[in-house]
TrEMBL record, chain A:
Pfam family, one: STAS
PANTHER family xrefs: RSBT ANTAGONIST PROTEIN RSBS (PTHR33745:SF1), RSBT ANTAGONIST PROTEIN RSBS-RELATED (PTHR33745)
Full protein name: Anti-anti-sigma factor
InterPro entries: Bact_StressResp_Reg, STAS_dom, STAS_dom_sf
Lineage of the organism: Bacteria, Bacillati, Actinomycetota, Actinomycetes, Kitasatosporales
From TrEMBL, chain B:
Matches recorded under Pfam families: HATPase_c
Domain named Histidine kinase/HSP90-like ATPase: residues: 100-200
Gene Ontology molecular function, alphabetical: protein serine/threonine kinase activity
Family annotation (PANTHER family): ANTI-SIGMA-F FACTOR RSBW (PTHR35526:SF3), ANTI-SIGMA-F FACTOR RSBW-RELATED (PTHR35526)
Keyword list, A-Z: Kinase, Serine/threonine-protein kinase, Transferase
Bias kind Low complexity: ranges: 36-50
Protein name listed in UniProt: Histidine kinase/HSP90-like ATPase domain-containing protein
Domain of life: Bacteria
Amino acid sequence: MTAPRATGVPILRLGDVLITGLLNELDDQSAVAFTDELTERIAGDGARGVLIDISRLEIIDSFVARTLMELTTMARLLGARVIVAGMRPAVAITLVELGLQLTGVETALNAEQGLTAFGWHRMPRPAGEARRDAPR
Amino acid sequence: MTLHGERVAGSELIAQRSAPAGPTVAAARTADRAGARSTASGTSAESGAPGVSGGAFADPGPLPGGPGRSSRFNVASEEDLLTVRHAVRAATVEAGFGLVDQTRIVTAASELARNAYVHGGGGSLEIEMPTRSGRRGLRLTVRDDGPGIPDLDQALTDGFTTGTGLGHGLGGARRLMHEFQVHSRPGEGTTVVVARWNDR
């Protein structure tokens, strides 16, 4: 197997969670290369979760949708849970009209909520300060 | 008549986003048989066929807006797909479309351009900015000289794919746009014309 083509997309590791994102300029070949790279990292790092931020994607067409669905399935087969975070509202509307529901892909409104779902939380505030979810 | 027989046998469709494919095909073919067509290679958009009341071009004739501005792009590589997306996005902004409509149109353009690239072996995409009844719009014409689509009804069915997508490309593009036409016959390539009008 040849070395995966570098996509230039950073894949960060935070504990057992990998954090990455898709860029708007991702072309088809890069999308495939990104899939290869990410699955290698999941296996290599023993990741249990993958957060994919897609807030920069201005459109999701059927190719990108397929990429996300395949990635999710591959990650699941490797024992990792994928959360796709940050979809733009216009993209969500268009996806539904296109007939795509990203079946099987877990989503979150934004990266922060995605990380929360993985069990990451903000630093606790010093004693005496109001809880962040307390009514103000 | 041989001409009409051929046309009926070939795959051709005029459809509106919300119209079911079957009856619309029948309407288009009926119009063809009515003799409104004189050439085999013209597009139905300009045919002026009477009686196609259910079709997207129920009020045909040369589409208003005149020649307008148009620009044409080659679709022969993945870089071209990105270039086309940018150009279509810029055109939607120029035509005053809102963000959701911009996204719909760019997504449809991406699907159609990829179809031309993957299935048609490359082609071209033309962007026009017509106006009709004071409404601005965007029309995309995507052509390729590929093998053509043997069975259009099948190609428009969600989930049908011969390539690497999800099989929602053609049918999805139809739902995202107000007007949708596809002309394709085996061995003669495929031309898809879509348009969306600005409601704002």
